């Protein structure tokens, strides 16, 4: 994954408003954290040209980092659509993983067919702390799959996430990074130099940050 492509992905996320930056009027996450950034990469699905760039970047990342992959799985819900697009590009089986089993019917946690020890790569749209992604990976492992790793569109680059993936022994690869988002936002005059300092401070201690 080249730095120029990672920058291109970051620019796409900002231009489509999949990522919004608001250092002076922070968003409130469901966790209760205050955040100067809001990310919903599902928005890119509405833009065919941009959607294709992300799909191809993820597919190329998987070919490079996980060449032995045998199936693609999406992390519900945000990773489902992008995961299906990537699986189609790679001509591989697709399935998706719920955070919890359904409360009715077959009560499945994993939707789709896979074989014992099948080598699977999970697709995620965003990595914050990594909790939901790791949970999905563990659900697959407990069901008998072999998880090669997780491929995501973008990561906030939290130290907590790095620790969580290391502890879980799960490989993480991303096609773009929080730093790329900030760099592109500056080029686009989306944020000021003062805003950049705020954005950097938040990433170092997001759970305690406030303005």
Describe the structure.
The structure is a single chain. The protein has 211 residues and is α/β, with parallel strands linked by helices. The protein has a single domain, classed as Rossmann fold, CATH 3.40.50.2020. Helix content is 42%, strand content 22%. It has helices at 3-15, 48-65, 78-90, 131-142, 159-168, 178-187, 193-204, and strands at residues 19-21, 27-28, 34-35, 37-39, 71-75, 94-97, 110-111, 119-127, 146-155, 172-177. The strands form three sheets. A six-stranded mixed β-sheet has the order 7-6-5-8-9-10, with helices on both faces. Helix 1 (3-15) crosses helix 6 (178-187) and helix 2 (48-65) packs across helix 3. It is globular, with a radius of gyration of 17 Å. The mean pLDDT is 93.
Give a brief outline of the structure.
The chain has about 210 residues and is an alpha/beta fold. The chain has helices at about 5-15, 50-65, 80-90, 130-140, 160-170, 180-185, 195-205; strands at about 20, 25-30, 35, 35-40, 70-75, 95, 110, 120-125, 145-155, 170-175. It has a single domain, classed as Rossmann fold (3-Layer(aba) Sandwich), CATH 3.40.50.2020.
